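Complex record, four chains
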Amino acid sequence: MDQVEIFKALSNKTRLQILGWLKEPELNFPEQPNADFENIGVCVGQIQLKSGLSQSTISEYLSILQRADLISSTRLGQWTYYKRNKEGLKKLSEIINTEL
Amino acid sequence: MDQVEIFKALSNKTRLQILGWLKEPELNFPEQPNADFENIGVCVGQIQLKSGLSQSTISEYLSILQRADLISSTRLGQWTYYKRNKEGLKKLSEIINTEL
DNA sequence: TTGGCATATCGGGAAAAGTCGATATACATT
DNA sequence: AATGTATATCGACTTTTCCCGATATGCCAA
């Protein structure tokens, strides 16, 4: 994954917020039946609702974050759940500490 | 400083390279008379030369990085020297570790 | 198998970023 | 004061990003 793409993914207010929300899903999203926040994540609809942006925009933003390895997704039935990707975030932290 | 602006500053290949070069100036730039790399930094002309981009572009890139608190500048005579800003980089690392 | 949701993808218009050459400014030397 | 050199700013053009509505796809229930 290109480093520039990681920073591009982070250079948007809404996308940064999404990552922040996913860090503490219990605080930022309503209770979810049949899907543990920690293991599975938060579904697209909830994230969209919270963001106030259109469905298509949020879907695209999530895929940008995923391509940058900052989040990962799980499909369950008709829902897609997204959660933080700890490895990707750790790698980013290392880039900053060792290369910049 | 807005977090988004920090990530925008980093979402460009050349600007990332500049930060990398400034991390180890002795390895990346020729000897400089009258200006210690550690204390004062590297002058704009050397950075431009190494980047291959135009003078105006590099001047602007350096000011983008400076506005994001990632580098700082010192004017000495007709030269402006830029160096890494450790505090800003540390703050960035903390943002990633605590907010994302 | 038809209809209804949830999500993804497509096409596009507006705004921002990338990058340049030309010009301005600031300082140093003669 | 005039010239030369280093850097900054301006104006313009091209490319990319933002964000939307419309449409497609995938899955489930009746």
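Note: Chain B has one domain: 3-99.
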